[in-house]
Design brief:
Layout lengths: L3 E7 L2 E7 L4 E5 L17 H4 L8 H18 L17 H11 L7 E2 H7 L6 H9 L12 E2 L12 H10 L10
Parallel strand pairs: 4-5
Antiparallel strand pairs: 1-2, 2-3
């Protein structure tokens, strides 16, 4: 099974999910402006976005449905109840360790780059942790937005600081990182 790009319509625009043979391998933020909430109708299934598209193979259709639900829950400020299988093979060993630590940040909590570095046994690698956060192929579901700079600074975000602010606000996260 090759890599498949699949659109996922949300209240915030259409995300693009990339699935490999083993799971969700990438998630891209919408390129266009978000849909205004008052004008939004429920997300359309993929077939309605492109009626000429062939149906997805069964495993991909299930993973797409799970991804769509998880993304909708996260964008609504709720912890996703289920995630699809994640394919993080694109990352280095260090990046995969960082991404695993990010996935372990509890919903509604934040950490600093330094705290993540310490958690993976590399206390002097805060900048490298920041780079790994920027390389995160599955933002939102692997919550790199929950990582802040020292003193509660926002730091960077692959989709831009406005998205980071919006995601943090949806989780009602404090500006300062929580103690571990």
């Amino acid at each position: 099974m090759n890599s498949h790009l699949v659109p996922i319509a949300t209240t915030e625009g259409t995300f693009t999910a990339r699935f490999s043979a083993t799971g969700l391998a990438g998630l891209e933020f919408p390129k266009a402006a978000p849909i205004p909430r008052r004008a939004h109708r429920s997300p359309q299934p993929d077939a309605n976005l492109n009626p000429h598209r062939a149906p997805l193979p069964a495993p991909l259709a299930r993973w797409r449905a799970v991804t769509a639900r998880a993304l909708a829950e996260a964008l609504a400020g709720k912890a996703p109840q289920e995630l699809p299988p994640l394919d993080l093979s694109v990352g280095t060993a260090f990046e995969r360790r960082v991404w695993a630590a990010l996935a372990g940040i509890p919903w509604g909590r934040t950490r600093t780059y330094g705290q993540i570095a310490a958690a993976i046994g590399r206390p002097r690698a805060a900048r490298a942790v920041g780079r790994a956060c920027g390389a995160n192929p599955i933002p939102v579901l692997i919550p790199c937005h929950r990582v802040l700079g020292a003193g509660g600074r926002l730091g960077g975000f692959s989709a831009g600081l406005e998205w980071k602010r919006r995601l943090l606000a949806r989780e009602k996260l404090p500006a300062a990182p929580a103690k571990m």
